[in-house]
Amino acid sequence: MLKMKVSCHLITWEEDFVKGMEEASSLGYRACETFTRIALKCEDRSDEFKALFEKYGLVLSALYGGGRFSDASQFHETVAYNARVARFAAQNGSDRIVLGPRGPRTAGGTTLEELKTAARVINESAKRCFDLGVKACLHPHLNTEIQDENELDAIMEMTDPNFVFFCPDTAHLTKAGMDPVTVMRRYKDRIAYMHIKDVTPEEPDRTKFPILSGDEALPIFCELGLGSIDFPAVVRLLEEIQYDGWMTIEIDQSTSTPRNSLMVCRDYVEQKLSIPISNRM
């Protein structure tokens, strides 16, 4: 059985992160990631932030940083922002920050010069985070400057593996045309955090989505086990590399309620992947 720890993102609750904490806790989750803009509202009231986590029996798995890495004019601003996020994360018991790139994408893809600039900014941001006891983990993301495989490979090659780690997101990698297992194997020594979510099939069978609340269009990402990603293969790779870090379940958009979606994911992870989330197992 994997030693990894399972977390959940409260993105589905949007601004109502307290309700998200309450419902995630009621489902047995013991850790969460939340919007950084919400967390930083408590930057000068850290005790209140900590008290919320204690109330619901949760720990903070990570916060999401990042920036427009390819814009040299934002170098100092981006580095300072990520150090700020890392400092707050560390004060609240987390040692991970996700480095998320931003859009828009350059027509035809991010250029080599833009990638070189991005690598410098990412390197410096990660070093500042590391000095604070926090590992910075690069998260390739659709519709941003680091989306495609060649862009990911270039950044990983041009950054220091002692400071810049990897946060694979199974859905974003898949939708960008990559095989998550192949990419994760390539950067196995740098994986320090991860997001898992599923991808809705191109021609979905709506009868396989038991939590649909109506005839609404299906989102691009869906609850674990309802989409096309081979999660057993992902787990086998994690077992092979003896990954023992956080695996954060993320549902961008629910087709019923945030709680129902997180329950579907919990049941899939526990029953199909044999990874415990709650103390019910």
From TrEMBL:
Cell membrane as UniProt keyword: no
Enzyme class: lyase
Pfam family, one: AP_endonuc_2
InterPro entries (alphabetical): IolE/XylAMocC-like, Xyl_isomerase-like_sf, Xyl_isomerase-like_TIM-brl
SUPFAM superfamilies per UniProt: Xylose isomerase-like (SSF51658)
GO molecular function: myo-inosose-2 dehydratase activity
Gene3D superfamilies in alphabetical order: Divalent-metal-dependent TIM barrel enzymes
Superkingdom assignment: Bacteria
EC number: 4.2.1.44
PANTHER family: HYDROXYPYRUVATE ISOMERASE, INOSOSE DEHYDRATASE
Record-given protein name: Inosose dehydratase
Protein species of origin: Paenibacillus allorhizoplanae
Lineage, broadest ranks: Bacteria, Bacillati, Bacillota, Bacilli, Bacillales
Name of the gene: iolE_8
